Amino acid sequence: MNIIEKLEKQERLNYEDAIKLYDLDLFTLAEYANKIRTDKHGKKTYFNINRHINPTNVCKDVCQFCAYSASRKNPDQWTMTHDEILEIVKNSSKNDIKEVHIVSAHNPHTGLQWYMDVFRKIKENFPAIHVKALTAAEIHFLSTEYNLSYQEIIDMMIKHGVDSMPGGGAEIFDEKVRKKICGGKVTSEQWLEIHRLWHTAGKKSNATMLFGHVEDRNHRIDHMIRLRDLQDITGGFNAFIPLVYQTENNYLKVKEPLTGQEILKTYAIARILLDNIPNIKAYWATSTVKLALIAQEYGANDVDGTIEKESIQSAAGATSANGIAQLEFVDLIKNSGFIPVERDSIYNEIKTW
């Protein structure tokens, strides 16, 4: 049976099948990805009202792709106080945010309790706000730094008010690529194990893939299939987020960013291949707003959120530093021919515009 026949029957694709998807033309991929998207979500495009907070840029690790860390090129180091973080949440709560998304560097000086106390304080002061915090890479760092198991860190997170985990730190699972771009960071197997434990605790998380740097197409396929395998076991991933690599201010020296066609192909392939992950998010902070909206025709059904303030992707050249206003989001989605649906962090629908 050839690949088109399998697509027509919506059969689950293996690695060899999935590699062939990249050989198909963009519009053929769009046709099959959009059918799956429409079957699952109709014309709905999800977004949330959220605030990103990056509390520190001091980092123990040296990842070649990172422009955010202050330990190398950026001499402007910062670590927020709890009062500063709480003031940000207070101000953002006036904008009716539903989620605070806390991700930062691997700072060896702040301390494990520093993280846990800030989660607790946010939850005590703003109990209705969903706390999404600590990537698997951060959990691995804290586990190593404080000689605690992943399970112990996860138990602490839940106790102190963390509601869900972001998908960062996955990068590309192939270990040869990881050695080049983020050697010494959490391994692929460790990343998957941390998310497995989180899901086993009854919690949800997202999954990401950083692409467009030194990886090949086969590395992307391998990455997605490993996520699919874990999802078969736990069912804990809310969404898959292909993150488009930002080329500025880092050590990889990737001269040419991916073409829009290659990015859209990857979104479409993700929707076709990840039959058990309900949502594909085109995170506008890495893809640009325009491409994220176009991606809604190629299998994606989410554009992330208002963000308000973003430091990690914008440090590498993305135009996401100041977020997007809620009503602008709504208009952009409507003008693209889709139905804007505000959601919460675990995809309960709040309002259809």
From TrEMBL:
Keywords: 4Fe-4S, Iron, Iron-sulfur, Menaquinone biosynthesis, Metal-binding, S-adenosyl-L-methionine, Transferase. Pfam families: CofH_C, Radical_SAM. Its EC number is 2.5.1.120. Pathway: Quinol/quinone metabolism; menaquinone biosynthesis. Its cofactor is [4Fe-4S] cluster. InterPro entries: Aldolase_TIM, CofH/MnqC-like_C, F420, FO_synthase_su2, MqnE, rSAM, rSAM_sf. Binds 1 [4Fe-4S] cluster. The cluster is coordinated with 3 cysteines and an exchangeable S-adenosyl-L-methionine. It catalyses: 3-[(1-carboxyvinyl)-oxy]benzoate + S-adenosyl-L-methionine + H2O = 6-amino-6-deoxyfutalosine + hydrogencarbonate + L-methionine + H(+). [4Fe-4S] cluster binds at residues 59, 63, 66. S-adenosyl-L-methionine binds at residues 65, 171. Residues 45-278 form the Radical SAM core domain. GO terms for biological process: menaquinone biosynthetic process. GO terms for molecular function: 4 iron, 4 sulfur cluster binding; 7,8-didemethyl-8-hydroxy-5-deazariboflavin synthase activity; aminodeoxyfutalosine synthase activity; iron ion binding. It is an enzyme of class 2 (transferase). Belongs to the radical SAM superfamily. MqnE family. Radical SAM enzyme that catalyzes the addition of the adenosyl radical to the double bond of 3-[(1-carboxyvinyl)oxy]benzoate, leading to aminodeoxyfutalosine (AFL), a key intermediate in the formation of menaquinone (MK, vitamin K2) from chorismate. HAMAP family: MqnE. This is Aminodeoxyfutalosine synthase. The lineage of its organism: Bacteria, Pseudomonadati, Campylobacterota, Epsilonproteobacteria, Campylobacterales. The gene is mqnE.
